[in-house]
Design goal:
Strand content: 35-45%
Helix content: 10-25%
Radius of gyration: 20 Å
Structural class: alpha+beta
Number of helices: 5
Distance between the termini: 48 Å
Strand order of the largest sheet: 1-3-4-7-6-5
Largest sheet: 6 strands, antiparallel, barrel
Order of helices and strands: HHHEEEEHEEEEEEEEEH
Number of strands: 13
């Protein structure tokens, strides 16, 4: 039995981890979007931001759209950078605007991110980029809900690796986040579901449910999928809330004690898809 195990153990021991080159990936994304912007054949990021309040909060998926019925072996293949390009006016180069996170819902171009990612978009062509440097421009934003902070959009692609929507994750369930915190692309962090909470209802928006997790993330992680132990989407990164020991007239005053990580639960994504 020992002899039979040796080849397998050797294979595991020599498997090299994937190394992400943040600078090279950013440059590829930026240069490709810049060329698309110069061609002038795609909608601008600014146009998406200007029209997002007019979009429906739910959408019926196209008849030929097929949601994933199984989870991918490598969920990082489904996760993308999302950004736009602009010119600063001081040079002739294209620059990437802030990079956030998005993920594939279907193989033929439907993707998901936070509503606030698109609402704050600026500049020219907006697109997504996978970990291999493949870039796809965004063609349209189909639906967006500000309260739940979910948006559905379509890119020009037919070979995406979709993630599967999973059942609600219970308190204490193990979760993983794949996102791009402050330019650290395709970072995996791990933790557990810590609670579900309902936000107070306001006159201008209804109350919504948020899922809090202990897996770490930061700026640039907005839209990142929260995965269960079977690589199914059980939520999506939304925002953080910092808790300080003291405050001064409502303003934070150290020391920082805790950062609460709030996420959109998967059921809110299903609602945007019309119950999908």
């Amino acid at each position: 039995m020992r002899l039979l195990l040796l080849p397998l153990l050797a294979s595991v021991a020599t498997a090299a981890p994937e190394i992400i080159n943040d600078v090279a990936l950013r440059a590829k994304f930026q240069n490709t979007l810049g060329k698309l912007a110069e061609a002038g054949e795609h909608p601008t990021a600014q146009s998406f931001a200007d029209s997002i309040d007019e979009l429906p909060a739910t959408s019926t998926l196209p008849a030929d759209a097929k949601l994933a019925t199984s989870a991918p072996e490598h969920p990082a293949d489904s996760v993308h950078l999302i950004s736009s390009v602009y010119k600063c006016g001081r040079c002739d180069h294209w620059h990437l605007a802030g990079v956030a996170t998005a993920w594939a819902l279907t193989h033929d171009g439907l993707m998901v991110t936070n509503q606030h990612v698109l609402a704050k978009a600026r500049g020219q062509v907006m697109g997504v980029c996978d970990r291999h440097g493949n870039v796809h421009p965004i063609l349209e934003v189909i639906a967006a809900d500000e309260a739940s902070d979910v948006a559905l959009f379509r890119v020009e692609a037919t070979d995406l690796v979709p993630l599967q929507l999973g059942p609600p994750a219970g308190i204490g369930a193990e979760v993983e986040v794949i996102s791009h915190p402050h330019g650290r692309f395709f970072m995996h962090t791990f933790g557990r579901v810590s609670r579900y909470s309902e936000t107070p209802q306001r006159e201008d928006r209804p109350s919504v449910v948020r899922m809090s997790i202990t897996a770490d993330y930061a700026k640039g992680s907005s839209g990142g999928p929260v995965l269960d132990s079977e690589n199914r989407v059980v939520g999506m990164v939304c925002n953080t809330q910092s808790i300080y020991y003291e405050s001064n007239n409502g303003q934070p005053k150290g020391p920082l004690q805790m950062v609460v990580k709030n996420c959109v639960p998967a059921d809110a994504i299903r609602t945007l898809l019309g119950g999908g």
